[in-house]
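User: What would this chain look like folded?
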Amino acid sequence: MKTAKLFLSLTVFFSSVLLAGDKEDIIKQIMASNDYVNKNKTNMSEYSKDGALEFWSSGGLLHEVGPGGRSDEYESFNMSIKHVEVLILVPKKAAVAMYYSEGSMTPKGSKPVGHYMTRVTQAFVKENGAWRIRASHWSPIMAVSYTHLTLPTNREV
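Assistant: Here's the prediction, encoded as structure tokens.
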């Protein structure tokens, strides 16, 4: 019985050690990336060596992003990140982050976006000791009258 309790205690301890830092590191990276764009008006390079796949809030089809990331530039960029949640899929190897991004921006060569609000889901992988983006989905938040309804479970897809 003592052996089982010791084993359980060690399992809980090592599980918490494995997870410690992953969530915090990813949250820090998300916040640092946003701060970087707010200050420099261009994106930070934080993509996987294999690039990433992304759905953008502007719509369209799936976009392939190279290892260098997106080369977006802005006349103005004043965004904030809120309510970050991180799910560790494989400790020290893979995770998913979900959060809200909102504010205002003016992409170079485009019209200003005065009230930009989007939900973000990003898949991260650990490469050479750093968390890198492997996939992103940016989904705009829109006030829609039916969002409070539950869809029937028997609907056809």
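Confidence is low (pLDDT under 50) at residues 146-152. If you want, I can go into more detail on any region.
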